[in-house]
Amino acid sequence: MQFDVASDDYLPLLKERIMAQIEKYFMLIVFSLYCKEVGPTGFNKTFKKWLDSKTYREDIAAGKGQLEWDRKVPDDKIVNLKELLNCDAFNENLPNVINQINQLSYKMFNDLPRGDQKCKSMRKLAGRTLIQVLPPKLTVYLEEKLGDLSKVPDFYDMVGQLSYFGKMPELIE
Fold it and tell me: What is the maximum alpha-carbon separation in the chain?
C-alpha cells in the first residue's frame, strides 16, 4: 500500500527494496525445496551446487520483470474517456470525464480501508489516468501551466487548469 502513495522521486528506491525482499522470500522457498530434496540423503550436496544445477535463479530473474507496479485502468475505459475529450467542445464533456475518472479510481482502490492513503492513491491514479486520456493540445497546455507531467501533478490542480482552457483571454503585452 505504501507504494501506491509514494512520491515519484521515492518510487525507484522503493521498487528496489521491494524486489530485494521478494527475492529473499523466494530464495527461502527454494532453500526449503533443497532441504526437502537433499536432506534425506544427509545433505551430501551444498546449497550452491544444488542451486547451480537448477533453473531457480533464472526463474526468479524472469519473474521480476513481470511484476505490475501500478493498478491499471481497463483499456476500454481509457478509450471511452479519450473519445469524450477528443472533440472541439471538450468543456461540455469535462465534468463527465472527471466523474468517470473519480468512479474508476474509487473502484480500483475499493480494497483499501478509508483514510488518507486511499485518498492519495485514488488521486494519483486519477491524475495518471487524466494525463493518459488527454489529447495532445491539452497535454501541451497542462505542461505550460504545471510543468513536467511525468511527475504526476495533483488531479484537482489539473482539473482546475483544464477548466480555464480557452476561457481566459490572452494577456496583451
Answer: 87
